[in-house]
From TrEMBL:
Alphabetic keyword roster: DNA-binding, Transcription, Transcription regulation
Transmembrane segments: none
Protein name, per record: Helix-turn-helix transcriptional regulator
Domain HTH hxlR-type: 1-93, 156-251
The keyword Transcription is annotated on this UniProt entry: yes
A Pfam entry, by short name: HxlR
Region Disordered: start-end pairs: 137-157
InterPro entries, sorted: HTH_HxlR
């Protein structure tokens, strides 16, 4: 999951695919992306099963890129990122447009709810524990990030989803934030849980403080989620739900979520804050 949603170009290509782009020229028109970077991302998304190639013309050969069921299921993650960046991150290379719910016609914000009982969900409403295939050692990637090519660096889209990628694009950052949501607050606790070097932990904690995601008062050993940090919960739980459906482990799920006060399994669902109806990928559009 991290290798896909932690790459900004991949997420931007999938965003445009879900908004209707199917042909190579449509992606290059909508995104400031080079041909080489786009070609690599499309190939990767086909390999991972999020897109499929369809030949629509033989002479000359022309292909289109269609979203698979796995790719369509990514929309709650993208909508949650869109909302978080729109609300909490003012510095963007290009202003993010608001979202429109085609069901009621209004500009809206997605609200995280429980798919089983429909109730709204905040940080304290969800309890997490490791499942049969879970554990820090198994859930962390074996490499920090894919080594970026010269084309990737030159055409970096940083600034479109800048702070989301500071979480999802670094394995220690993502793990630290997950640990913070599950109750870890001391430096020693992060280091013990993740078995990371002190320098890696310190670097990511400082980034989160600089970005206003975590806070720590002078003399207080505890790092605490800010309102901005707590608002990242929909991104985490929708990404987790998508990953566990799309890439299931033979032993069972890696993480088990419970709706704390109700005692039943928690599965995320997004609703429109205007009409309260359940959102679907087909009813979310840019204004």
């Amino acid at each position: 999951m991290l290798s896909l949603v932690g790459d900004e170009w991949t997420m931007l290509v999938m965003q445009q695919a879900l908004l209707g782009a199917t042909r190579y020229g449509q992606f290059t028109t909508r995104l400031p992306i080079s041909n080489s970077v786009l070609t690599r991302r499309l190939s990767s998304l086909i390999k991972e099963g999020l897109l499929q190639r369809h030949r629509y013309q033989e002479r000359p050969p022309r292909d289109e890129y269609l979203v698979t069921a796995t790719g369509r299921a990514l929309w709650p993650v993208l909508a949650s990122i869109w909302e978080w960046e729109l609300r909490w991150v003012p510095e963007h290379r290009q202003p993010l447009p608001p979202m429109r719910h085609l069901g009621c016609g209004a500009e809206f914000r997605p609200v995280l709810t429980c798919a089983h009982c429909g109730g709204p969900i905040a940080t304290d409403d969800v309890t997490a524990r490791w499942g049969p295939s879970g554990g820090w050692s198994r859930s962390l990637p074996t490499v920090t990030n894919r080594r970026r090519s010269a084309d990737d660096r030159r055409d970096s889209p940083s600034g479109l989803f800048p702070q989301t990628m500071s979480v999802l694009g670094n394995r220690w950052a993502f793990a630290i934030l997950v640990a913070a949501f599950t109750g870890t607050s001391r430096f020693s606790g992060f280091q013990r849980a993740l078995a990371a070097s002190p320098a890696s932990i310190a670097d990511r904690l400082q980034t989160f403080r600089d970005n206003g995601i975590l806070t720590k008062a002078d003399g207080d050993p505890h790092y605490r989620l800010t309102p901005k940090g707590a608002a990242f919960l929909p991104v985490l739980v929708t990404a987790l739900a998508w990953a566990q459906r799309s890439f299931p482990a033979d032993e069972g799920p890696a993480v088990l979520l419970t709706h704390t006060d109700h005692g039943h399994a928690f599965s995320p669902a997004l609703r429109c804050d205007q009409c309260r109806e359940l959102l679907t990928g087909a009813t979310v559009s840019a204004v």
